[in-house]
Amino acid sequence: MPKMKTHSGAKKRFKISGSGKVIRQRARHVHKFQERSSRAARRLVPDVEAAPADAKKIKKLLGK
């Protein structure tokens, strides 16, 4: 049986933490920071855990 390939889009967007949680970046954290207040931009900085409902699907796409 052939090896399962990692989903290219998922590997760019998600990572698995050491404890097995799926980590994602917050929405709107890519560009246009000059239009946001410093406070709003700082709020987007920390990565967060993906919703448990999505985690199972994401792990499957990542081959975990």
From TrEMBL:
<dbReference type="InterPro" id="IPR001706">
    <property type="entry name" value="Ribosomal_bL35"/>
</dbReference>
<dbReference type="InterPro" id="IPR037229">
    <property type="entry name" value="Ribosomal_bL35_sf"/>
</dbReference>
<dbReference type="GO" id="GO:0022625">
    <property type="term" value="C:cytosolic large ribosomal subunit"/>
</dbReference>
<keyword id="KW-0687">Ribonucleoprotein</keyword>
<dbReference type="GO" id="GO:0003735">
    <property type="term" value="F:structural constituent of ribosome"/>
</dbReference>
<dbReference type="Pfam" id="PF01632">
    <property type="entry name" value="Ribosomal_L35p"/>
</dbReference>
<comment type="similarity">
    <text>Belongs to the bacterial ribosomal protein bL35 family.</text>
</comment>
<keyword id="KW-0689">Ribosomal protein</keyword>
<dbReference type="InterPro" id="IPR021137">
    <property type="entry name" value="Ribosomal_bL35-like"/>
</dbReference>
<protein>
    <recommendedName>
        <fullName>Large ribosomal subunit protein bL35</fullName>
    </recommendedName>
</protein>
<dbReference type="GO" id="GO:0006412">
    <property type="term" value="P:translation"/>
</dbReference>
